[in-house]
Automatic annotation (TrEMBL), chains A, B:
Domain of life: Bacteria
Keyword ATP-binding attached: yes
Organism: Streptomyces ortus
UniProt-recorded name of the protein: Dihydroxyacetone kinase family protein
NCBIfam families hit by this protein: PRK14479.1
Length: 581, 581
């Protein structure tokens, strides 16, 4: 279990701070993560990696010559926000564009995707690439749905080494895709980890049993077996990987492979070496030539007891990239050039300007006061129900929905107050609130709620008086944006199951001429019923829901919190259009 | 707990094999451990480190340019045998002598000391140095009694960097002593580890409590407190270390220090970084300039949950040595030169010649048959009582006495049979048996029993017929050698409490003209009583006995096994002098 922390909410930030202090020769802290202390050489594509905290040396430990140019670091097991990623990418950019790389998890896909869009707005060309190496997480025909685990390392490294050669962004992206297509991992686990401040493990594996294919956040595996011997564990993993050779590899014999035997946290070095002994023998017997093996802790989950085996089937080009030197805090290879002298202790770069707001009409500024009241009500209802939301989420997920929502709504309210104080209109207040929510909450729900507030704010603007129709159109925009970004549809047991009927009912009632409060009331009733109905649903396959099957009979946490929020907002809406207060 | 293993007895060997297979660019396996793949440059002093398995990257992971030239690797938490150390040192020797370095534990002191003596016999100049950095293990005025923990690394590194500069052995030893005198560590622990094949932890710490100063094998600490926050843990360790500055350092302000924050196994990287953040702040506030800090797992105890802080107070010379480049499997620093191409998979070097024995008289060869019978009885009695010996040892120690004795007696018997088949006399049979016992059993008892058999064999020789007086003189030699090597006296609750009265009684009875069997019988009765009396004793402070205070009321395991053996041997002694069968 995680025992050494201060305020659990500050854990990830404090860890990043300590990490940066211990590695000044390699990295420099910036808002949202770290970049190379020496910077990105001008004209070189920057590879920016990232993901949640708790997986060290992924992701900050992999920043340095020959590997990543920057890492965006989220909260514990939560994606960094789009704002964080954008900040790191802007600091890492060397003028030749940025490749954003991460493991394939819903929250990361959302935030990195949004960041790429915003970077384009900043004039920085950005592409995204999600690693999908875990063969136990989806069938071969659905390999694009697979999770990324320790295969992150060889895929990141191939792309970064190509960037180091000076190749253009499109080519670096092509190398990443090629490396990913030839990289496969398979893991087993014996026990879960307990997150900072939690009083029970995130997931458990029965005593003397082994979960086959369990994900690094407790995502479901493909079976459970008795605890194996070290040799049996080696055979299980090698056999699984030799069964699914990539395109272009007809048989293992005569092939070369990069091999990574990765410990998740409390399977220790000696055990890994005992297992590796057999892995090497089995691969040797299959005719595979092992190139520069790595045996150690390269992607962890705190002190989770588990181990995974990764093979990257090398061709000449991939072998060259795998063998290329690297010099990072946690991964060093070959003969790197001398370290730069320790960089000056850099201040955190603050690149978000929240001291200025666009001009707004008096009417819109008046409406902004209602927005504040609504956000205050939202923060209040979430605070009251945070523990309940956590409990519901823990049935099938990692139980942090309440924490994330509390962090998000608090930050949204603070940002809204700041913007209002600066004279912002209703639209800008909502946009600032949305950005702060996404930035501070992280995770999937943070990204989606940020989008909801931003969509609504963009529709309302800072000029016109918001009417019921305008609010309904804003909610419909938000509903569309959430479906587009999150990729979920009605029936997938997500907040979309509530947001879509809520938006439809609101649009219908507003279109029929009802005043906002009445229209919202009808829509909120629909939302509550829809949230309760999610208890009858199973999540769609492939989404990051550990133990999805257990959630039958329990509503979706995101759907439930959305319904609570619609009800709370109704309580502070005026009985008449927003301008008539 | 340790979950991935095959035969627990083969764990350490298999781990070493896998380690070597994964790191062919750095190390080459030899009998007893590993040496640098590139060898020791001619004329360079070789630094050979070592200790038990279970502490990776200590010790094999520290072999490579700029650090150790070789590592002798013992069984799990057991010293390598003198034979193993000698073998590694012979392979590592570059013609300028060898410095043997290890943490200050009884078994290591014994075996490395013996190895140095034998290396002298091989014509290789060897010195020993024990690291004593753990300030919680003895008071400042007894600092030579302290254990070695993570301070091993900076002390090994200083000596090795000096060797790399081409300095002579005496100077390298002086550097080691200087670095050790300025290196201090302090640790805390939250839970113990479970060794391969064991069904319960080696030691435990109560839930939500912290053991202050607990040793890495569960040796007793100096107190127990509530689980601290990360900042409190940092403050506790920094305060303890700033309280005991080395000679020549009057105050921390203005000093430079190498800082190592070491995780013992399942305190993970992010937690270490959170703690390091505060360590750095506290040292900064005290005016200490941190030089090249290391935060990670550098000396572990399987998955023990614990953390230690090490400071080496640097002067200009020590800073130069600390900053010097290094390139080993687990520790890389600066700008090392390119790796050598992977060495050929080296066969294990077999450098012990057990195919030839010295000439012996017919009489002595006849007596050797009695020696075989005695060793057979010894192996039998140990096998019968192995579980009981383990249970007795577990009260205060690590519970492996039965395992070690079984391994040793089995090996001794096999070696004796081999020597006898080659025509050896009684003396050579005993010497071979003793060497095999020490080599295969490892640990403190292995070294001492090896010495007992070797002393007895040396006295008996291969020419004369062993008389009762000769046997008694041999046993007295053994008693003297055990006291000299082990440093224990009567009353310290060790086998010495039995060996000394046994030897004295035997000498007295033989001197009085009693035949061997009768003299031995008297001595065996004395031995049994003395062994039982050890239940009333407390072990001497500073010896490696975890939970020593718990052992009151239980006899010492080593004393008990010695008494059992004297009784078993009596059962096979002829009723008349050994030559009259």
């Amino acid at each position: 279990m995680t025992r050494l922390f201060n305020d659990p909410a500050a854990f990830a930030d404090e860890a990043l701070e300590g990490f940066a202090a211990a590695h000044r020769g390699w990295v420099r802290p910036v808002t949202g993560g770290v970049v190379r202390a020496a910077g990105t050489p001008a004209g070189q594509v920057a590879v920016v990696v990232g993901g949640g905290s708790g997986h060290y040396p992924a992701f900050s430990g992999l920043v340095g010559r020959g590997l990543a140019h920057g890492a965006a670091v989220g909260n514990v097991f939560a994606s960094p926000s789009a704002q964080q990623i954008r900040s790191v990418a802007r600091s890492a950019d060397g003028g030749a564009g940025v490749l954003l790389m991460y493991g394939n998890y819903a929250g990361d896909v959302l935030h990195f995707g949004q960041a790429a869009e915003r970077l384009a707005g900043d004039g920085i060309e950005a592409r995204t690439f999600a690693v999908t190496d875990d063969i136990s997480s989806a069938a071969p025909e659905e390999s694009a749905q697979r999770r990324g685990i320790a295969g992150d390392l060889p895929v990141f490294k191939a792309a970064a080494a190509a960037a180091e050669e000076g190749l253009p962004l499109a080519e670096v992206l092509r190398v990443a895709a090629h490396a990913n297509a030839r990289t496969r991992s398979f893991g087993i686990a014996f026990s879960g980890c307990t997150l900072p401040g939690a009083d029970h493990p995130l997931f458990t594996v029965p005593e003397a049993r082994m979960a086959v294919g369990l994900g690094i956040h407790g995502e479901p595996g493909i079976g459970e077996e008795s605890l194996p011997t070290a040799d049996e564990a080696a055979r299980l993993m090698v056999t699984a990987l030799l069964k699914e050779l990539p395109d272009g590899v007809d048989a293992p014999a005569g092939q070369r492979a990069a091999v990574i035997l990765n410990g998740l946290g409390s399977v220790k070095y000696e055990e890994l070496f005992v297992v590796y002994r057999k892995v090497a023998a089995l691969l040797g017997a299959a005719g595979v030539d092992i190139v520069d093996p790595e045996v150690g802790e390269l992607v962890t989950s705190f002190d989770m007891a588990g181990v995974s085996l990764t093979l990257t089937w090398l061709d000449d080009r991939l072998e060259e990239l795998w063998r290329a030197p690297a010099d990072t805090p946690a991964y060093r290879k070959g003969a790197p050039v001398a370290q730069d002298p320790a960089a000056e202790a850099a201040a955190y770069v603050e690149d978000v300007d929240d001291t200025r707001v666009p001009d707004a009409t008096e009417a819109s500024r008046g409406s902004a006061a209602h927005v504040l009241a609504a956000l205050n009500a939202v923060a209040g209802i979430v605070d009251t129900h945070a523990d309940e939301l956590g409990r519901i989420d823990a049935v099938a997920g990692d139980g942090d929905h309440g924490i994330g929502m509390r962090r998000g709504t608090t930050a949204a309210l603070e940002a809204a107050v700041r913007a209002h104080d600066l004279g912002a209109g209703a639209g800008t207040v909502l946009v600032h609130a949305g950005d702060a929510w996404a930035d501070k909450a992280g995770g999937t729900s943070g990204a989606l709620w940020g989008t909801i507030l931003r969509s609504l704010g963009t529709r309302l603007g800072d000029q016109d008086t918001p009417t019921a129709e305008a609010v309904a159109r804003g909610v419909s925009d938000a509903s569309d944006a959430v479906r587009r970004l999150g990729g979920a549809e009605v029936g997938d047991k997500t907040m979309v199951d509530v947001l879509v009927p809520f938006a439809d009912t609101l649009a219908e009632a507003a279109g029929a001429g009802l005043p906002l409060s009445e229209a919202w009331q009808r829509a909120a009733v629909t939302a509550e019923k829809a949230a309760a109905d999610t208890a009858d649903l199973l999540p769609r396959k492939g989404r990051a829901r550990p133990h999805a099957e257990k959630s039958l009979g329990t509503p979706d946490a995101g759907a439930h919190s959305l319904a609570l929020i619609t009800r709370a907002v109704h309580g502070v809406l005026p009985d008449h259009p927003l301008d008539q207060h």
